[in-house]
DNA sequence: GTTTTGGTTATCATAAATGATAAAATAAGT
DNA sequence: ACTTATTTTATCATTTATGATAACCAAAAC
């Protein structure tokens, strides 16, 4: 498990946590962000190294700032 | 100028500002991050949509947290 | 038990970030 | 002016995130 993989897992968990806190399904969040739901699923599972723009859209639609999204990463 | 481009310009300026605050040349930062100096140049100019891992390496080597790096974006 | 609902996994194509290298431009210092 | 350091720009190959679609799994509802 390298740094990159750890980071991917961490951001994935963070997104999942914030999303579940507001009871928003993956598909809803994905739709709002204009990303594929399968893509979001992989992201939350730590399977991708998302770009800044993807993270920004997720933060916006979760109602948090980008800082809050990447906290402790 | 769309949202993505604005975001790229914003992160670029932020990296540049933080880097210059500690008087670190692009090439030094790039070397520490194991990224190409040309790549960093483009990033600071707003020409790329960097991945989370790239941003994390940059934050680490600038001596700031990821939150601090993406502040106000 | 069979519909929903939410989530996962798989595959392939496409777009784009990055690696690698080189050349040109700019600034700073001597 | 000349040198040196720094940055920018360009190009091409490679890697990878994402788009798009489909099939599958799990749990809860009914």
From TrEMBL, chains A, B:
Domain HTH cro/C1-type: 15-69
Xref: InterPro entries: Cro/C1-type_HTH, Lambda_DNA-bd_dom_sf, TransReg_Diox_bact_type
UniProt keywords, alphabetically: DNA-binding
Keyword Cell membrane applies: no
Protein name listed in UniProt: Helix-turn-helix transcriptional regulator
């Amino acid at each position: 498990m390298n740094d990159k993989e750890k980071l991917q897992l961490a951001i994935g968990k963070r997104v999942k946590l914030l999303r579940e806190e507001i009871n928003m399904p993956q598909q809803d969040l994905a739709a709002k962000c204009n990303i594929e739901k399968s893509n979001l699923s992989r992201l939350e599972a730590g399977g991708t190294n998302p770009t800044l723009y993807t993270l920004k859209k997720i933060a916006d639609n979760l109602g948090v700032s980008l800082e809050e999204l990447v906290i402790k990463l």
